Structures are given as C-alpha cells and as structure tokens.
Amino acid sequence: MSDFALALAALRADLPPIRKRTKGQHGNYANYHDIKKLVDPVLAKHGFLWETRPTLIPYPDGWRFVLSYQLTHLETGQARGGDFPLQEMDPQRQGSQISYAKRYALCAVLDLAPEGEDDDGMAASKPERTRTRTTGPDHERLRDGTVEPTPDDRPAERGPTTADPWQDQPPGQLAQPPRKASKGQHGYIAQMFRDRGITDDDVRHGMLSQMLGREIGSQGELTMRDANVVIRQLQGGNGE
Predict the structure, then answer these.
(1) Among the four 96, 148, 165, 166, which has the fewest Cβ within 10 Å?
(2) Taking the CA atoms of the chain, what radius of gyration do you get in angstroms?
C-alpha cells in the first residue's frame, strides 16, 4: 500500500461528522464553506493540501470549461484529483455551479457523506411504469414516465383590449411560474437511481446538476420540464 493511501486513511479516520445545516428550498444540505471549515484543520494536521481551479482544458472535440481539483500529500508529493465539467453560462449561474463542483469534488475525494434526512426519498414509492397514459387533475403520464401538461398547465394567451393594462407589450403569452415536478415523476426518477445502485444524495444531486446545467441541491427543486429531461437522459435519450 502506498504512503499516500496510508496517509489518506489516517486523514479520513480523523474527519468529523458533516451535518446538513444550510436550508435549501426543499431541504437541508452541507455547503462548501461549512465543510471546508471542518475539514481544513484535519487536512493541515495530516499534511494534505486541497486545491481547486476553474480553467479551460483541451478535449478531442475542443476546449471545455472545468473545475480542476487536486488533493496533494505534501510529504510524498503524491496527489489525487480530476476535472469536474462545468456548463458555460451566465456568470451568476456559473458561480453557483463552481461552488457546487467544489463541494461535490471535495466530498468525493475524501469520501464524505454529509448526515441528514434523505430529502430525495420523498417519492420513494415505486411508480407505475406500464401505464400507457393516465390523466390526473393536473397532468398526463406517458409510458416512459415523463409528464405532459394538460391544457390548464399551458400558458394563458393575452390579446389586445381597450383596457389592456399590458398595452405597452405586444399580444402573446402571459408568463406563468414553471410547474413543479409531480409525485409520479419524483418516484420514477428515484426508482431509476436505485435501479442503477445510486443511493448517495450528493452523487444524485451532482448528476442532476450536470444534466440540467445548474446546481441542484434537492430533487424537490425540479420542475415538470426538468423531470422530463432527467428521465429521458437516464433512459439514454437526449433529454429534449
């Protein structure tokens, strides 16, 4: 066994419990700042250096934006790291994704499993997969588990009237907030993750973030369209 592996084993044995203390929209999670505050003293004690760097790296099909990360054992100079793919998007969402990538990479390298409720277990009941189409009060479910909006879910049309308060805007569709994913969609996604042996919350959230191009702290954040994209990607489709 290498000196790096022995040192890493000693480091992991000395790590404190990581709690999910940050309140998200649909549950608690452990943020990067809290994890680092607990982990940094242990890294220093055991002679490890943790580094991350957003950068561009060449791939056969062109340059890609990634978060490069590395855990180095200072005594031996041995290191372990990799590149977490990032989506190129507006700066605000990009910053959020970089923050998530740092947290995900650190937890993965140190094998950290933040403790707390499994907020993605809310829809753990097994979904009905053989139903060709069922119509509920707010959706229609197709055979592949995706959901189509019923007429009530579709945007309301607006046309010009003499007393139209929106007369400074052209006729069109009134914006409506996106509908949350249904219980059936959550159950279908949870079942597909379990079928693939993926039970760790952070791993699932990391996969959801990559599929949707933004940070996902809880499966409960998914909209109906998000859930359709995730289901089709997990089934091997293109997600559109």
Answers:
(1) 165
(2) 22
In a domain, 169, yes or no: no
At 25-51, the pLDDT tens digits run 667 778 888 899 999 999 999 999 999
Together in a domain, 213 and 183: yes
Q: Which residues of the chain have pLDDT under 70?
A: 1, 24-26, 88-92, 116-176, 237-240
Both tokens of residue 132? 């060709």
Task: Give the residue numbers spanning the domain of 8.
Answer: 3-110
pTM: 0.47
DSSP code, position 81: E
Write the pLDDT tens digit of every residue in 159-176: 444 444 333 444 444 455
**Which of 137, 222, 130 has its CA nearest to residue 185?**
222
